Amino acid sequence: MDVMEELAESSEFNESKGPCLAFRQAASVLKSLPSAVRCLGAIQGLPWLGEHTKAVMEEILTFGRSFKVEEIRCDERYQALKLFTSVFGVGPKTAEKWYRRGLRSLKEILTEPNIQLNRMQRAGFLYYSDISKAVSKAEAEALGCIIEETVHWIAPDAVLALTGGFRRGKEYGHDVDFLLTVPEMGKEEGLLLHVIDRLRDQGILLYCDHQGSTFDVSKLPSCRFEDMDHFQKCFLILRLEEGQVEGERGLQRDPGDSRGWRAVRVDLVAPPVDRYAFALLGWTGSKQFGRDLRTFARKERQMLLDNHALYDKTKRNYSYRRLLRRTSLPIWVWSMWSLGREMHKHLPLTDTDTIPTLYIQYIKGSQTPSLGNTFCHEVERRFCRFIKANFLQFYTFWHVLFNI
DNA sequence: CGGCCTACG
DNA sequence: CGTA
DNA sequence: GCCG
C-alpha cells in the first residue's frame, strides 16, 4: 500500500517522527503480505496495523479512496517538499527552508541568486533527470561488470557482490550498491581509493563522496585495536554508456535523448573480510528491516548491531568477532550459506522490498563446509535464531500461513 | 506515558 | 545538515 | 501512530 508511505512522508514533513515511523511499519507489513488485501478480515492480528491505519484502509476498501490521503496529495506544501527532497543532497530541513522562502519549483531554486548549494546538491541538480529515473537490473549488472573489471585490474583476487534492493530480487532501484572485499585480511586497505582513481582515469566518475577509514593515531591512543576499523565506503555518480548494457531495452532514458549515456548513483563499500557477514546483512536489508533488527538487538538482547559487528554490552567484547578469529574456516561463508538456506525454506517470496532474500548464489558455488566444528555450529545456530526471532516479515508470513 | 536504528561525513 |  |  503506497498510501501508507504517503502518510509517512506527510508526517515526516510535519516533523511528526512517531506517526511517520508507525506508517512506515504499517507499509512494511502490508508489502510483506503474499497478496493485496481484499477485506479487513485478512489483516486480523497483524502487527503495526492499529485503529488509525485500519480506518484508512477501510475507507479505501469501501470508497476506493481516502479523504485524508486525497487532501495530503493536493496540499501545496506537501507537493513542494516532495519535489525538493527528491533532489540528491536535499532533506526535509533544506526543503522546508526553500518552501518558507516562497519557492515552489526546481527552476525557481536554480534561478534564485541567494541560494548556495553544496557539492552534493550541485551534483543532485546537475544529474537530476538521470538520477530520478529508475535503474534497471540490466543496468545494475552492466555497472557490476565495469567495476569488476576495474577492481580485478588492481586486485585479481577481489570479490565484488551486488547488494541493496537488487539482491532482494527487485527489478528496478534508485541506486546500485556493491560490496567489495578480498579473501586476505587487511588487503582491502586503500583498495577503494585505488578503484576510485581508476574510475576517474576512465572518465566515468561524475561525482565522488569518499568516506575513508577514520584512523588517526594521534587521536585515539586509548582506543582498542578492534575499534579502529570503520571500513571504507563511497557514494558515487557514474557515467554508464549505451551499448554496455545487455538486453534489448538497453539504457533507461527519455524519448528524444541522444546522448548515448546516463548517470547512475552507485555505492561502494569495502569491509575487511571478517566483517563481511555483517556488511552483507546491513547492506542487503531494506531500511525498515535494518531498524527492526537493530531495535531487537538493543531491546531484547542487550546488544548493539551495526554494519560492522554485533557488540555484546554485558560481555564487553564483540561476541562474534572472537569466535570468528578462532576458526580457520572462512566462517562468514558458512553462516551466510546456512542462513540463506534457512530463509528460503520459510520465505518463498522474493519480489518485495521488505523481504531480503539473503544472497547465497556465490556461496553455493563453493564447497559445503565440514560439520563437527563446535564453533561453526554455535555461530550458525545463534545467527539463524537471531535473524528469525526478529524478522518482521517472517512473523507476518508465518501468521498468514498458520493463523488465517 | 516514553521511545521510536545506527553509523558515517 | 545530509548519506546509507 | 503503535507498542510495551
UniProtKB/TrEMBL annotation:
Q: Does the keyword Chaperone apply?
A: no
Q: Where does the UniProt entry say this protein principally localizes?
A: nucleus
Instruction: Tell me its family.
Output: Belongs to the DNA polymerase type-X family.
What cofactor does this chain's UniProt record say it requires?
A: Mg(2+)
Annotated GO biological process: double-strand break repair via nonhomologous end joining
Q: Which residues form the DNA-directed DNA polymerase X domain?
A: 2-351
Q: Per UniProt, what is one GO molecular function of this protein?
A: metal ion binding
GO CC field? nucleus
User: Per its UniProt record, what SMART domains does this chain match?
Assistant: POLXc (SM00483)
Entries under PANTHER family matching the protein: DNA NUCLEOTIDYLEXOTRANSFERASE, DNA POLYMERASE TYPE-X FAMILY MEMBER
* Keyword Iron attributed: no
Protein name per UniProt? DNA-directed DNA polymerase X domain-containing protein
Record's subcellular location: Nucleus
Note the PROSITE patterns from the entry.
Answer: DNA_POLYMERASE_X
> InterPro entries given for it?
DNA-dir_DNA_pol_X (IPR002054), DNA_pol-X_BS (IPR019843), DNA_pol_B_palm_palm (IPR028207), DNA_pol_lambd_fingers_domain (IPR018944), DNA_pol_lamdba_lyase_dom_sf (IPR027421), DNA_Pol_thumb_sf (IPR037160), DNA_pol_X (IPR022312), NT_sf (IPR043519)
- UniProt keyword list: Magnesium, Metal-binding, Nucleotidyltransferase, Nucleus, Transferase
